[in-house]
Specification:
It holds the Pfam family adh_short. The protein is an alpha/beta fold. The protein has a domain at 28-220: 3-Layer(aba) Sandwich (Rossmann fold). The protein is 50% helix and 14% strand. It is built from ten helices and eight strands. It has helices at residues 2-23, 31-34, 47-58, 70-83, 98-112, 136-164, 184-206, 224-232, 261-265, 272-277, and strands at residues 38-42, 62-67, 87-92, 117-120, 167-173, 212-218, 240-241, 250-251. Strands 3-2-1-4-5-6 form a six-stranded parallel β-sheet, sandwiched between helices. It has a two-stranded antiparallel ribbon with strand order 7-8. Strand 5 (167-173), helix 7 and strand 6 (212-218) form a beta-alpha-beta unit. The longest helix is centred in the middle third of the chain and has 29 residues, at 136-164. The radius of gyration is 20 Å and the shape is globular.
């Protein structure tokens, strides 16, 4: 019996190693290996996308930035140049329109002459947070922006990425791993991202196509959008992932006088992506 238990323990350990080696981020390439690479970052006018753009700029990449707000995009592109980007261009796009997503990839083809990194980060759609009232328009909008546009960008860029043996980096969140109230439309889209890109990664490996796919699962990050949500719905905070290195432990943390909703929302979980890019 002891031998069987030992064998089962070893088998469990091997299975766990295989699972986490497939799902977690591999170490980032040294900065000198990114210099001169062609990078498209969506949702890069503010927040996480903006910071990702700055990090690639510091490593000397050629950047194409896209979001809806042109003024902010111009400012981010200028700062990228100041930080050391080999070049920084921008294109305004609305990811609620899949044709617009296709056009972004065509811009990358024309302006960058190819693509090495596709960083999918944009977020949008109506009615993302709040009590679900059966609004199908809100569900459709969220799925279009937060899932279908990601797929459209990936499909349109696939040929260029295969030619460069490039990388797809998908910025997801805990909402794609753990269901929570008041996030139904948003969470559904994030779960779809997890399923699509995890399956794509395995299919590419089986077909021996040299194209890496990374899904970065982030916790709650202190951005303007998150702060706006918690300010608007201070009493809807529930099922918040709390004090967990990789975000799999869930603790019910209702807003209180000592832990108000906005500050709880800014509890940033340190995923491997955050640690690598933290300054």
């Amino acid at each position: 019996m002891a031998a069987i238990r030992l064998l089962l323990s070893l088998l469990t350990g091997l299975c766990a190693y295989y699972f986490y080696s497939q799902e977690t981020l591999s170490p980032f390439k040294p900065p000198e290996m990114v210099r001169g690479k062609r990078v498209l970052v969506t949702g890069s006018s503010t927040g996480i996308g903006e910071q990702i753009a700055y990090e690639f700029a510091r490593m000397g990449a050629h950047l194409l930035l896209t979001a809806r707000r042109e003024k902010q995009l111009k400012e981010v592109a200028q700062k990228c140049l100041e930080l050391g980007a080999s070049s920084a261009r921008h294109v305004v796009s609305d990811m609620n329109n899949l044709t617009s997503a296709q056009n972004v990839i065509e811009d990358a083809r024309n302006k960058l002459r190819g693509l090495d990194y596709l960083v999918l980060n944009h977020v949008g759609g109506s009615g993302r947070f709040g009590p679900f009232q059966g609004d199908m328009a809100a569900v459709t909008s969220s799925m279009t922006v937060n899932f279908l546009s990601y797929v459209q960008l990936t499909v349109s860029a696939m040929t260029m990425l295969q030619e460069s043996q490039g990388s797809i980096i998908v910025i997801s969140s805990l909402s794609g791993r753990i269901g929570a109230p008041f996030t139904l439309s948003y969470s559904a889209a994030k779960f779809a991202l997890e399923g699509f890109y995890s399956s794509l990664r395995r299919e590419l490996r089986l077909r021996e196509i040299s194209l890496s796919v990374t899904v970065a699962v982030l916790g709650y990050i202190d951005t303007a959008k998150v702060d706006c949500w918690f300010t608007r719905l201070p009493h809807h905070l529930s099922s918040i992932p709390h004090n967990s290195c990789y975000g799999f432990d869930v603790l019910f943390v209702p807003p209180t006088a000592s832990i108000p909703a906005p500050s709880t929302g800014t509890e940033s979980l340190k995923t491997r992506l955050c640690v690598q890019w933290e300054h």
